[in-house]
Fold LacI family transcriptional regulator.
Amino acid sequence: MTPSPGRKKRSTILDVATVAGISRGTVSRVLNGEPYVSDEARVAVNKAIKEVGYVPNMAARNLVRQRSQAVGLLIHEPHALFLEDPNIGSIMLGANTVLSQAGYQMVCLIIDSELDVNRIGQYLNGGSIDGAIVISAGENDPITELIEQLAMASAFVGLPPNHRPLPFVSIDNKKAAAEITARLKASGRTQIGMIASALGRAAGADRLAGFEDALGSSYRPELVAMVEHFSFDAGIAGMRELLERCPTIDAVFAASDAVAAGALSVLQRIGRRVPEDIAVVGFDDSVWAQRTNPPLSTVRQPASELGAQAAELVLAQLRGEEINRGGVYLETSIVWRDSA
Amino acid sequence: MTPSPGRKKRSTILDVATVAGISRGTVSRVLNGEPYVSDEARVAVNKAIKEVGYVPNMAARNLVRQRSQAVGLLIHEPHALFLEDPNIGSIMLGANTVLSQAGYQMVCLIIDSELDVNRIGQYLNGGSIDGAIVISAGENDPITELIEQLAMASAFVGLPPNHRPLPFVSIDNKKAAAEITARLKASGRTQIGMIASALGRAAGADRLAGFEDALGSSYRPELVAMVEHFSFDAGIAGMRELLERCPTIDAVFAASDAVAAGALSVLQRIGRRVPEDIAVVGFDDSVWAQRTNPPLSTVRQPASELGAQAAELVLAQLRGEEINRGGVYLETSIVWRDSA
DNA sequence: CGCAAACCTGTGAACGTTCACAGAGGCGTG
DNA sequence: CACGCCTCTGTGAACGTTCACAGGTTTGCG
């Protein structure tokens, strides 16, 4: 039985060398663009490479170099969230652009089940990637633990779980939440509620904290509905809960745009006018925000920039630079549309 | 200068062997769960592995095994599309589940610029992955060409570009489009238009072909607006164009849900009632479809199943099985909601 | 012209695995 | 008892690169 049916036997650097009539070493030098190789040899090698259809074997190269020129993007999200969160796509593209320009391959790894966790562990430490960007890891994440243990080059998008002292890029969720809440208050609303999500994550908890901060003494716990995820469906559930508890509510800060969209759909169904009867604001400024009716007022976060900076952070570590232990915070801004 | 600052030196299989007091070979056998190893040796090895914190080096293993136990998921989408298309996420998850269960690591590679193309080429043929799943490759895609040349295990989601005879999983876009168009016709609409997208891709072209087929002699070319992408914005542009050309239009088949959502937003803005004045249907049954107001009637396609079957197809090839050259078609169904 | 410096090339040794092979014991059976 | 067959183990040779080193040729300059 042939081992890999249909797949041609690959030619090696030695094949190229013999065809070009020179040695391995010189071929390798040409391949890596090193100096000290004659023009004559260079053209011969390039010709031979085409002739035999040579492509370097990464495994061999990685083995001897002890690095892979690849950076992993670890996505550790529950199913539903991964599909709904439009930020993830932007983060991916931002990171990919930076890594690509630096000559690194970005490989994204989805962690979906416990089965995956072990394999990813192997992948991380097995030399297949030189560094990792981690998106939205939950508390007590085994992968996070592993990364810390291995002291591998890494960057988190959002705060690292359990306050581990690992490099990260984030926005100031608390500050941003406080700002948009203050703005709601300033617009004259008096019964301001919040649909708080994902309190198990820093992003979720901080948005609630900012909300509390901004309201200060006028904060009323019964006006906060806690839901599991940053999802549309969670928004529906949260809004229903708030309406039941306080029918006269006149403003809602939803922990994400998707949540806000869900809330909006409930309000529309029962005939409350937005923003006349009740104001709704979201968080993220994702594509959703511009497509609800009315379009959402929300907090804009620079998603692709988050990915890009995370990539830079990893690259800096790979270059051996000392990086800022305190993490990087990017600016947010408020986008005021028609929903409040 | 230390080569990889901060990163610990990894222990090898030899370290494990010496600590356990036995040879490389036996350690390797334990690692790979082979028979013919004494219980005594097994426990000694496992103990030693924990003690020295051993993790196998993938590069070395891949090199000697000539395979990587990883399958690539190539995403070759223009920026915007990638962010909007919710099917991609489902496809990824479907594929990941299957690959994961088979002990394969899924690595997704985003092809975003020409810069990426070369690097991906290396990745494909460099032994980093054993097979590839390709999502929505465009015509004359260099990656597709490469895959065919290398005769590597592969599966396309959607038809392979340029009618290459490569394995694929798809839905029958033409048939599905014809079905939903026929349904519109049967509901008594007389001026049925279409916003056709991405005609450069089989999916786009086939949906238009199905539309034409269903209308037969009543097909009127002036009622078709052609737009570039399957996007919300394209839907806006397409709907405006149709309204201008034929103000009395009373039904629209949009080439995707996102396009339909865009069209809907235009209609709402100018005060046309949906579905009373004009019916709108989409394609995909993505999350968007349930969140427009009114919710969209659309064609449901089994996105995660597409990913799963593509993964199966790749795995079958890796096992050396002969696969069906004709490709696999999955069933679609019509979901009738309130927009038509 | 002589010597050093720059340029170019080939070679052997690594990188960390797996795999095939050989060989050592133990056990059952003719 | 002898032979063969299992069970278990160790060893050397790959896998395809890169890298350091050594050697050879050319160039530049005093």
In short: The two ends of chain A are 69 Å apart (CA to CA). Confidence is low (pLDDT under 50) at residues 1-7 of chain A. Chain A touches chain B through 68 residues (CB under 8 Å).
